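Below is a concrete protein record.
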Amino acid sequence: METVRTMAGSGCGTAALMFAVLAGASGEEPRLPGAGARLDPAGQRRECADIQGYLNDEAASGRAVHARPDAASPLLGRVAPPDRDPKGVYDIAVGFGILASRDGWLLIEGASDDPVLTERPARYMYSGRGWIRSERVTVGLQTTQGFAQPHHSSAMLIRALGPNSLDNLVEIAACDGQWVLARWRPSQARAIRYEPAAVISADPLTLEAWATGICNIQETSCDGVSGDRPAK
């Protein structure tokens, strides 16, 4: 599914020096946000477009779905944890459409197993519209770059040095159109260049940036899809 799922870094202290290469020959980069700046301001609801999400929460109870982006709001039902593939080798996550985001919550609809992948009938779970926490929700991403805002003209915060270096996507914290605010835990510390503004945790190293290049297929990649900034 993901030819280029995101991550890798070394240490916060060297991040600015490592990132200098990103300004490159194409000229000045847009203004960079400061370290610790929020890339998704509190209280802002964002609408998404044609994004399929996957829940990778292995808790036996699955994930609670609420009426509003608030844990105290009414509980509507639950989304099931991942199922196993027919040979019992790997997990197959429950998929759903992501419609909007706000304050670390995602508005989803249509949660279901994929019987083609599991080779058995879909399990019963809540499939209506509702809000879930964004932790351990991922998407298919084909990109080597991450940005400060959900558009290519914003400052580049992350750049992978190889086509498969931006891996280990762990969470989608927000969405905006066909962009997602992605969080990665790099598996190859020296394979990515990043700005201090992308670092939300130093141990374990966790990077955050807006990215696009959505591939709504769980088991393979999408031909011709790339979220990288178009060449000038």
The first helix runs from residue 15 to 19. Residues 46-135 form one domain. Confidence is low (pLDDT under 50) at residues 1-26.
